[in-house]
Amino acid sequence: MKKLFLAAAVLALSACSTLKINTDFDPAVSFNQFKTFAWVEAKTTDEGYHLDGLLDQRVRDAVDNQMAAKGLTKASVEEADLLVNYLTKVDKKINVDTFNNNFGYNPYYGPGWGWGGSMQTQTTVREYEVGTLIIDLVDNKTDKLVWRGSVADTIRDHNTPQERVEIINNAIGQVMSAFPPQPAE
């Protein structure tokens, strides 16, 4: 059930809104040396049914396409220069908006008579979820993390498989646009 919930986080990354992108990398690493990549192999031997199997495949396909577009070739884990892994997480957020209105006409005689009116306060509380997808690239020779990209957005429901593929491709395309990092000039 937890994997299903986490899968919703990735599905929520909406192509319609502004995605929050963040990247970080090791500046001491020369990214020109990396020519091949492979996915981190799962430590479990459970090869059976996965709740997030379709989502997992969509994320892997999108990352594979981005890596190939950048000139990297998929290889076996033993031969790969980079190891790729991804993580998802969901955070619950609360938005509280309070509006104070001081307007109108006070028809009663006495202090405050005339224009001025009364104070009205309205508070709205909205709970929402933010899904985050994190992509890690690890140097296979040193086992050190060399690049990390994340993309976050408010979770929204999308109904069709085509929409889900488009959303995942867009989100991963945006975060992977910062790979490889450009050297400082």
Explain what you see.
The chain contains three helices and six strands, in the order αββαββββα. It is of the alpha/beta class. β4 (82-106) and β5 form a beta hairpin. The longest helix is centred in the first third of the chain and has 17 residues, at 53-69. It is elongated, with a radius of gyration of 24 Å. 21% of the residues are buried.
SSE string: HEEHEEEEH
Main beta sheet: strand number and arrangement? Answer: 6 strands, mixed
**On the 0-100 scale, what is the average pLDDT?**
77
How big a fraction of the residues is strand?
A: 35-45%
Number of helices: 3
Query: How far from one another are the termini?
Result: 47 Å
pLDDT < 50 stretches: 1-16
Shape: elongated
Radius of gyration based on Cα positions: 24 Å
Helix coverage percent:
10-25%
The secondary structure category is alpha/beta
Which sequence of strands runs across the widest sheet? 1-6-5-4-2-3
How many strand elements? 6
SSE layout and pairing:
Elements: H1 2-11, E1 20-25, E2 36-39, H2 53-69, E3 73-74, E4 82-106, E5 114-139, E6 144-154, H3 161-176
Parallel strand pairs: 2-3, 2-4
Antiparallel strand pairs: 1-6, 4-5, 5-6
Helix pairs in contact: 2-3
Features:
single chain, 185 residues, alpha/beta, six-stranded mixed beta sheet, 3 helices, 40% strand, elongated
Brief characterization of the structure:
The protein has 185 residues and is of the alpha/beta class. Helices cover 23% and strands 40% of the residues. The chain has a six-stranded mixed β-sheet.
